[in-house]
Structure formats: structure tokens, C-alpha cells
Amino acid sequence: MAVYADDMLTRADVPNGTAVVRGVWCRMFADTHEELERMARTIHLRPSWIKHPGDFQEHYDVTKTKRAEAVRAGAVELPIGAEWRDEMLRKRQAWAEAQQTTKQQTAPQPDPAEQPARVRVLVTGSREVTDQEMVRAALNACRARLGGAAMILVHGSS
């Protein structure tokens, strides 16, 4: 497992609150979230600066100076077009998909007994016979019986 720093080296002025950070930027990413966060702490990056947190594209945008600090602290220098980076992204995406599958499988399922009842009442009849009072009476009867959980669909014909 490792932390990587690419050599994108793009000039940009990046807003940071009321200040603007001018510099040459690249990306720092890792095999795991934990390794990325550990390196971020080592080179004094704020956790709020992370891009795409929890996603397979998770990374920090770092200045050339911070990139050099990361490399001194053990990050692997990686050319931007490197096959390594493409392979890493594939591995990280597969890992993220596996994590999502695990979360879905372990997510607690709601107890059907605790789910509110869904009831639909259909009132039909000609408009000459079915008036608003009749519909209101049917609605009130259903609400009283079901504790307020009723949807009324009204279909009338002339």
C-alpha cells in the first residue's frame, strides 16, 4: 500500500476562504483512505481540503511544495500518464464498489410491522350521485379507522 503524488503541475489560483493560494498544483492519492489521511496529517493538510471523499477518486490537490514534502515523507512520484495511476484507479473503484455492496448487505432492514400502512380508497360514481360531502364522509371514516393514514382517489363520471 502506498501514497502517490502525480506530476500534473498545473498553475492555478485557488480560493481559500478570504485568501487566494497561487501555485503549481498536482494530486496526491493513496491505495486507502487511511493512508491518504495519514499523509495529509504528516504534511499538514486540512481534512476539509479532500476532494471526492469516500469515492474511488478521493485525493488532495497539493501545491508543488506540499508535493515535495509528501515525497520526502514517502509518497511515490507518479507521472500523470502512468499506467500505474490507471491501474490504481481501477483497483480503488473495485474496492469502492465492494465497500458499497458490503454496506448494502449489512444495512439494517426495516421491520414491516413498523412501517405505516398505505391505504388507498377509491370513490366512484356519477357526479350526480357522488358529491363532495360523500367523498368527505368516506375520507373521514377511513382516517378514523386508520389513524389518519389514507389517500383518497376520486374518480367521477358525468
Can you give me a brief rundown of this structure?
The protein has 158 residues and is an alpha/beta fold. It has helices spanning 33-42, 64-72, 83-106, 132-146; strands spanning 3-6, 10-16, 19-30, 60-63, 76-78, 120-126, 151-157. The protein has 2 domains: 3-105, no CATH class; 114-157, no CATH class.
Structural class: alpha/beta
- The radius of gyration over CA amounts to 29 Å
Total domains: 2
Strand portion: 25-35%
Shape: elongated
Q: Tell me the distance between the termini.
A: 74 Å
How does the major sheet shape up? 5 strands, mixed
Helix share bin: 25-40%
Order of helices and strands: EEEHEHEHEHE
Q: What is the residue-mean pLDDT, rounded to a whole number?
A: 76
Low-confidence stretches: none
Number of strands: 7
Q: Please work out how many helical segments DSSP would assign.
A: 4
Protein described:
The protein has 158 residues and is α/β, with parallel strands linked by helices. The chain folds into two domains: 3-105, no CATH class; 114-157, no CATH class. It is built from four helices and seven strands. It has helices spanning 33-42, 64-72, 83-106, 132-146; strands at residues 3-6, 10-16, 19-30, 60-63, 76-78, 120-126, 151-157. Strands 1, 2, 3, 4 and 5 form a five-stranded mixed beta sheet that branches. It is elongated and about 80 Å long. The mean pLDDT is 76.
